[in-house]
């Protein structure tokens, strides 16, 4: 009986600890995950770290000036499982990318996919932005 009680107590503690971890992850409420936008930009930095990767790109404006945009992507473990590493994307690369914009209008959002100059497409999404090239609109 003592063994059963110890097991149930331990199982309860494990369940409670996992619930807190799951609740700690943020929602995608800050992103408009019904809008898919495609742009081209030059990679400034690829921050390949947990809990989320970040992709920073310079995007040309209509007046030929540039704006630094930032995009949240999936965590390192998920990307490694997809074949994406910290060296897959390099500063200076020009890429086409799809994203779901921030609702507040700042330059950035949740990254969906990135297409490299050689045509290779990478899925960097964290599950909240999963549009395709056909569903994207240029902005």
Please, could you describe this protein's structure?
The chain contains two helices and seven strands, in the order αβββαββββ. The chain has 139 residues and is an alpha+beta fold. It has a single domain (37-138), classed as OB fold (Dihydrolipoamide Acetyltransferase, E2P) (Beta Barrel). It has a five-stranded mixed barrel with strand order 1-2-3-5-4. Mean pLDDT is 84; it is low at 18-23.
What are the salient characteristics of this protein?
139 residues, alpha+beta, OB fold (Dihydrolipoamide Acetyltransferase, E2P), five-stranded mixed β-barrel, 2 helices, globular
Mean pLDDT: 84
Radius of gyration: 19 Å
Query: Any guess at the CATH architecture?
Result: Beta Barrel
Strand order of the largest sheet: 1-2-3-5-4
Q: Give the CATH class.
A: Mainly Beta
What separation lies between the terminal Cα atoms? 66 Å
Q: What share of the residues lie within helices?
A: 10-25%
* Percentage of residues in strands: 25-35%
The assigned structural class equals: alpha+beta
Biggest β-sheet description: 5 strands, mixed, barrel
What is the gist of this entry?
This protein is α+β, with helices and mostly antiparallel strands and 139 residues long. 21% of the residues lie in helices and 33% in strands.
Question: How are the elements arranged and paired?
Answer:
Blueprint: H1 2-24, E1 37-47, E2 54-60, E3 66-72, H2 76-81, E4 94-101, E5 108-115, E6 121-123, E7 137-138
Parallel strand pairs: 1-7, 3-5
Antiparallel strand pairs: 1-2, 1-4, 2-3, 4-5, 5-6
